[in-house]
Design a protein that fits this description.
Blueprint lengths: L11 H39 L9 H22 L7 H38 L4 H27 L1
Helix pairs in contact: 1-2, 1-3, 2-3, 2-4, 3-4
Length: about 160
């Protein structure tokens, strides 16, 4: 039996868990970003009929939804860069957890941004004083994905 300090060839399924973690990170966050973009875009399109002057201000939810996909991209690139021949099962499990911990909050944050962005854009078209409140609610939705990114990076470094 080899000592703990010696390099061992990893089992083939260890890399599978790492790859699934990278795939979950990018796919779930991208799904959340796509939903947030689409739902906010619907609100922008219907708001633009009555208030075309506010279109550029209303783009904020779409930008915030797109940032969520970047969180997943960062984690999946980190995971993919660590795949090697001496990849261990512990790394595979940890990276699988990294993918889930950034992907699921990213999906939830995308849904939150989409719903809040749609209602906020329509509401701020009717009452412009609602704009600051919409931005604050969007920030609270975005921070959910940021928490997932922080946990994923912490798991990655372990």
């Amino acid at each position: 039996m080899p000592n703990a300090g010696e390099d061992e060839k990893c089992p083939s399924y260890a890399i599978f868990f790492g790859c699934i973690g990278a795939a979950l990170a990018i796919s779930l966050t991208t799904l959340g970003a796509a939903y947030g973009t689409a739902r906010s875009g619907i609100g922008i399109a219907s708001m633009a009929v009555t208030r075309p002057d506010m279109i550029m201000r209303a783009i904020i939810p779409v930008v915030m939804a797109g940032i969520i996909a970047i969180y997943g991209l960062v984690v999946s690139v980190l995971i993919a860069g660590s795949l090697s021949n001496n990849y261990t099962m512990e790394s595979g499990y940890s990276h699988f957890g990294c993918g889930l911990s950034v992907g699921l909050p990213g999906l939830a944050a995308g849904v939150a941004i989409g719903i809040a962005g749609d209602a906020g854009v329509r509401g701020s078209a009717a009452q412009p004083r609602l704009y600051v409140g919409m931005i604050l609610i969007l920030i609270f939705g975005e921070v959910l994905a940021l928490y997932g990114l922080i946990v994923a990076i912490y798991l990655f470094t372990k």
